[in-house]
Design goal:
By secondary structure, this protein is of the alpha/beta class. The protein contains 24 helices and 17 strands. About 45% of the residues are buried.
Length: about 575
């Protein structure tokens, strides 16, 4: 069985348990293990056969036994038992964004919805709105989600960049180590830092191309492969990601890299613009249509120069005006990871983080930041890990003591909170307590199912609170799991620009919220953008790379990002 097969079986069992009303921690155990198995770069079946399944993060003795049963019999006994209790098709219903197991069971009990077809029919016939806790908006969301599920390339074949990119980089690094390899680069949507990817494209040159392709076949990450040739290889990793290795003569490396990096929209516009200038562009070269002279390029810089453009960074190649800007010399100098001076969204064990205040602060300082804000969840976060007012007052004193002992002109710890925005836009701490904080993040964590108008009014009300410094993960999306709630981003951006309230790009690779389009819109409206990690442990402080990537895709410069400023400069923004 592939890693994907094993992960799918455990995910299904977790969903079945949740349909049956299992406690939350038990369900999370299965989803956590399934994620680790799906993303594992090595064969989980081989590990299990060797009695080493427990080496996988999140897999204990009980789960290892279930994996053994699955490999031996093709089924997990506990899943078979639960499938006799619920329609097997109900699992598919739970995977519709915005539904989930609890809602799926409710729809099954109330309306006998057991399949995706049943769900679509009930939404079209306006029956879902009558179910307690749902409403007309839920019907609209269901139909939209079902339509998206049917779009090519947008189903389970797309994985988060954070899953695909490490594998792409490891494969490319391994190929570079081959003695016959010259140049090896990752291309495609991974190189553009897109939110999700459906495959991995690698471009290479080599002295013996077929030997390089054969070398990839034997890599530990590769589960299956086609026939290697001097032009490359198509393969698949253990977690189901397609890999396309293309090998080209060095003289045309730039042409192929450009072609397989650019989005479809970027490349179409590039070709159409070239035709107007008497040129034909392909992955093989640039042809002068009058003379039939073909120009091949060793680098992408040469490709763009030959076509009359400045070099265009991969993140900008989305067909959103970058060609015009490159021809007119108006491309922005994009923000870089090294420009960041602080992280303003991090959690500790006081709420749902995995590391203490001391550990998070030390990790932030080690990353070279000048400041870092600790922003544990407020009193109505709604997940059982909230910080009540008295405990927040203690945290204010703890941060002051930390700064007294460890702080310096080179690093300052800020005491903050990620405060839930109520339905009326209010914050769930007393105003005098909020005023004591160095940094106030306001985010929506509850009651998503309201109208776009009400959600917009709710967030704008928070923006207009003079104590609020920044709005967190504005649209509430979880990529591939939860659709953004309806909100008028333009109206929010206008209010934020008017009041001087910042809006974050959340670097959690499951969120990346604001997305690149919204971030560009907000920055153009005059909003100060903050790049944050939403770190729940010292390991996820590295998520800043995803925040920076989103900012670069949004055309943002160092000047557009508030936390590229020194502490003395940033402090002026807060006033």
């Amino acid at each position: 069985m592939t890693n994907g097969d094993i992960a799918a079986a455990l995910e299904e069992l977790g969903v079945l348990y949740e349909l049956d009303g299992a406690v939350r921690y038990r369900v999370l155990a299965y989803s956590t293990a399934a994620r680790a198995i799906r993303e594992s770069p090595v064969s989980v079946e081989e590990l299990a056969r060797a009695g080493r399944a427990t080496e996988i993060p999140g897999v204990g003795k009980t789960l290892a036994e279930k994996i053994d049963a699955l490999l031996d019999t093709g089924e997990i006994p506990a899943a078979a038992k639960l499938k006799a209790k619920f329609p097997a098709t109900l699992v598919a219903v739970t995977r519709v964004p915005g539904i989930g197991p609890k809602t799926a069971r409710l729809l099954w009990e109330e309306l006998q919805i057991a399949t995706l077809e049943d769900l679509k029919k009930a939404a079209e016939e306006e029956k879902i709105r009558d179910v307690k806790g749902l409403g007309p908006k839920a019907e609209v969301n269901v139909l939209a989600s079902l339509e998206r599920l049917g779009e090519p390339g947008e189903g389970p074949g797309r994985l988060l960049l954070s899953t695909v990119r490490p594998i792409a980089l490891e494969l490319a690094a391994a190929l570079r180590e081959h003695p016959g390899a010259h140049r090896v680069e990752v291309a495609g949507s991974v190189r553009r830092w897109a939110d999700t990817n459906k495959d991995i494209d690698i471009i290479a040159t080599a002295e013996e191309p077929k030997e390089l392709a054969e070398f990839l076949v034997g890599h530990a990450l590769v589960a299956a492969a086609g026939n290697p040739s001097d032009k490359g290889l198509r393969a698949q990793t253990h977690n189901g990601i397609s890999v396309d290795l293309r090998i080209v003569p060095p003289a045309a490396f730039g042409n192929l890299l450009q072609h397989f990096t650019g989005s479809q929209a970027h490349n179409i516009q590039l070709r159409e613009d070239a035709v107007k200038r008497g040129l034909s562009v392909s992955e093989h070269g640039i042809t002068d249509t009058e003379t039939d002279e073909v120009t091949t390029c060793e680098t992408e810089h040469q490709v763009y120069k030959r076509l009359g453009y400045e070099f265009i960074e991969p993140e900008l190649r989305e067909g959103r005006g970058e060609l015009k800007a490159a021809r007119e010399g108006e491309l922005p100098k994009l923000v870089e990871l090294g420009d960041l001076r602080g992280d303003l969204h991090a959690h500790t064990t006081l709420s749902d983080g995995r590391n203490s205040l001391d550990e998070m602060a030390a990790a932030g300082r080690e990353r070279g930041y000048a400041y870092m804000a600790i922003t544990d969840h407020s009193a109505s976060h709604g997940f059982g890990d909230d910080v009540q007012p008295d405990r927040l007052r203690e945290r204010i004193e703890e941060v002051a003591a930390w700064n007294e002992e460890h702080g310096s002109r080179r690093f300052r710890l800020l005491v903050g909170s990620e405060i839930n925005i109520g339905l009326d836009g209010s914050l769930d701490y007393p105003e005098d307590l909020v005023a004591e904080l160095d940094w106030v993040m306001a985010s929506v964590h509850t009651s998503f199912n309201v109208s776009e108008k009400d959600m917009t009014s709710r967030v704008v009300a928070a923006i207009e609170d003079p104590n609020v410094d920044c709005i967190g993960h504005l649209t509430g999306r979880l990529i591939g799991k939860r659709e953004p709630y309806g909100i008028d981003v333009e109206a929010v951006a206008e209010a934020a620009a008017r009041t001087g309230t910042m809006i974050e790009i959340n670097g959690n690779p499951n969120r990346r919220d604001l997305n690149d389009r919204h971030a560009r819109l907000a920055a153009d409206a005059g909003v100060r953008i903050v790049l944050n990690t939403d770190a729940h442990g010292i390991d996820t402080l590295a998520n800043m790379t995803y925040a920076v990537a989103t900012a670069r895709r949004a055309w943002l410069t160092k000047a557009d990002v508030a936390n590229t400023r020194t502490w003395s400069e940033f402090k002026k923004l807060l006033s």
